[in-house]
Amino acid sequence: MTLTIILLVLSNLAFGHGGGLDSSGGHNNRKTSEYHCHREPCFSLQNIKQQELPETVVPNASDDSTYRLTGDQTNKCNGHLLIGVPSKSDQILCRLGYAIGYDYSRKSAEWVAYVLTPQIHSSANVPRQDNFRPDLELPVDSRKTLRDFEEPVFDRGHLVSSASLDASVQMNSETFLLSNMVPQLPGLNRGGWKGLESRERKWSAQRGLLVAYTGSIYQGNNLVYIGDNVPVPTHFYKVLFDPRREEAISFIIPHMRVLTLELSRYLVSIDQVEKLTGLDFLGRLEDSKEAEIESRRPMKMW
Q1: Alpha carbons 148 and 227: distance in angstroms, whole number
Q2: Which residues does 111 contact at the CB level (< 8 Å), separation at least 6?
Q3: CB atoms within 10 A of CB 69
Q4: Is the pTM of this model over 0.85?
Q5: Strand partners, 54
Q6: Distance spanning both ends of the chain, measured CA to CA
Q7: Which residues contact 42 (CB under 8 A, 6 or more apart)?
Q8: N or C: where does the chain have the smaller number of CB atoms within 10 Å of the terminal CB?
């Protein structure tokens, strides 16, 4: 059986919301203030709503908890949890372009899962939104605020890059929710981390669909805090899985100034990321296949 990812299912009906369409092809719902897409260029993600994956990606998928995105399953986080949920987390947030497993105690994401395809990030349909804001879906005491970042040292660092998710206004805007942000030194955020984000888009353009996970790591008992008890990560990780080639590339990067040319120093296996984080990234793969893929440490960059 061929598995199909439905990345986006949007209604073509423009009535019932009120208001005309803006230059991006969408508008805000008057009652909910949510942004809706109805035509190009905002609606161009419709062009990639069907992406076929090998049958082996989700073997023997028959129970209700499996993220087989067909029929009534299509709303399971828009396909971003197809290969499994890395952890239960305190709260799982489903967005148009990504899913988040959120940790209340650290006011930060344990993981961010997203699917990359060339059609999502190569066309640059919309400009960078830059509308940084608190995530109102989270409990008040567990969410970061703009005031937390009113200090001179750290950037508001994206976990999933806005440039990787620019197929619609809503998709790009959601990357600026503070649940997708952590304190990050400029020497990493504007250096090696930005370079890695650029490479994930390049690799997707070359390879096609990639499943991605990214997040922050907190080691030791002497963490630095900013704002209202927001911890600063000691490391960052990124895992990219190519389901067609059954290949993965993973990184654990220390929170320090890192150049893009130095990224190969931080190549690790998925097993190493899981050991350090306690997460499970490819849990829906057949056990022996998962073990084989996760044990490999890439010897060089893709």
Answers
A1: 4
A2: 86, 87, 89, 100, 101, 213, 214, 215, 277, 279
A3: 25
A4: no
A5: none
A6: 30
A7: 24, 25, 26, 125, 126, 168, 169, 170
A8: N
- Residue 32's CB is within 10 A of a number of other CB atoms, namely 9
The 10s digit of each residue's pLDDT in 17-33 is 344 554 444 554 444 44
User: Within its chain, how far is the Cα of 106 from the centroid?
Assistant: 18
Average pLDDT over residues 283-290: 94
Indicate the SS3 state at residue 6. Answer: strand
Between CA 155 and CA 71, with CA 173 as vertex, the angle to 5 degrees is: 130
> Which residues lie below 8 Å from residue 13, measured CB to CB, with a gap of 6+?
none
Distance CA 171, CA 8 (A): 11
Q: Check residues 4 and 116 and name the one with the higher pLDDT.
A: 116
Q: Tell me the residue type at 84.
A: G
List the structure tokens of 285: 């793969």
With H, G, I as helix, E, B as strand and everything else as coil, classify residue 42: helix
Three-state DSSP class for 266? helix
DSSP string of 156-206, one letter each residue: EEESS-GGGS-SSHHHHHHTTBGGGEEEE-HHIIIIIHHHHHHHHHHHHHH
- CA dihedral sign of residues 135, 100, 180, 145: positive
List, as one string, the DSSP characters of 209-255: -EEEEEEEE--SS---EETTTEEPPSEEEEEEEETTTTEEEEEEEES
Report the pLDDT averaged over residues 221-241: 97
Question: Strand, coil or helix: what is 86?
Answer: coil
CA distance 39 to 134: 29
Confirm if 129 and 172 have CB atoms less than 8 A apart.
Answer: yes
